[in-house]
Amino acid sequence: MSESASLACSECRVQIDLGKAVKDLSRVRYFHSGDSDKKRNPDNGLISAVLWKFLAEHGYHGVRVYSDYDAKYDDEVAGYEEIGGDGIGEVSLRDYVANWSGWSLG
Length: 106
Ligand SMILES: [Zn+2]
Description:
With about 110 residues, the chain is α+β, with helices and mostly antiparallel strands. It has one domain. Helix content is about 25%, strand content about 30%. The longest helix is centred in the middle third of the chain and has 14 residues, at about 45-60. The structure holds zinc ion. Zinc ion binds near residues 9, 11, 12, 58 and 61.
């Protein structure tokens, strides 16, 4: 199974799925969401807007990247509300940045 990661705020118990951790030896080169033929995350304007809004809202709370290989991931982060998740009450990526003043494409 490939390694995936989330950016999470433990204070607000919310996370964003960063996708698969694409590695070169043990170093993460980038994160990729979806199939390999999809745009890489930095080329995806929607994902970038979500990331910037998340940093604006939670950056001062002490956000952190968690690998799904981390023990804390299953114990805690996996249960956080996921922005872009499909659980009850979770918001889509597009709805998260809709009408956000920080995104000119919104
Ligand atoms: Zn927060």
